[in-house]
């Protein structure tokens, strides 16, 4: 009888041990799942911090977090600006509709701009840090996915081309939002001047794809080396033909021994894909 009692006590102890072990294992699984979820959330979904923006953006906005002007920005490095005649770079965000092959779509584009008074007391415009920050365009998503599936070279070419599309949209917006632009920028009036817009951007860059506020794919350039590419556009209106005349010149500023190989490490938070090649392009 005594042995049977001891046996029952032992069985009860073993049962309690198994229950405790099972509970501890369950807690361990829950804790591990929580840790994995937290790490995944930090990598994929956390917004980019202002420090990351300052380090990894292709172009800086021109201001530090405390409101003072940055000492080193794309405008300092790539712009032939007279500081006394230029406004500090400011950020603008606009919605653009019906861009070329995407009728019915709206693209939200952000850029930095500095307005400068030239020697003739006329305003020249400098733009940079152009980013696609939102859109509602399924066809763009399809085209972007096709380019991604075709490889990094095809994806890079697609994004470079869309950069140019965005640049032209901004140039037209500046022109058409000038009061009396047809008179102010009349090609046939020697006393007036042509619209001058210069886009400043890095010569060495890669691309960071991320997720927008509506789960759409957006992107931006990341500077990854030295050198500059300046795209200068002159526009005027010809009343005889009722056409806008445009001339474009592109200048590349770089060291003869330029090497583009300074990829961001680690990858900036918010990037769901970073093209792993730092390359040269000036268009």
Note the main attributes of this structure:
alpha+beta, 10 strands, globular, 2 domains, 283 residues, four-stranded antiparallel beta sheet
Helicity level: 25-40%
Distance between the termini: 95 Å
Provide the domain count.
2
How confident overall, as mean pLDDT? 75
The beta-strand count equals: 10
Strand coverage percent = 25-35%
Walkthrough of the structure:
The chain has 2 domains: 1-36; 48-280, no CATH class. Residues 1-72 have low confidence and may be disordered. The longest helix is centred in the N-terminal third of the chain and has 43 residues, at 2-44. With 283 residues, it is of the alpha+beta class. The protein has helices at residues 2-44, 50-56, 74-78, 138-149, 152-176, 181-184, and strands at residues 90-99, 102-117, 123-135, 195-202, 204-211, 217-223, 228-238, 243-253, 273-274, 279-280. Helix 4 runs antiparallel to helix 5. Strands 1-2-3-4-7-8 form a 6-stranded mixed β-sheet, sandwiched between helices.
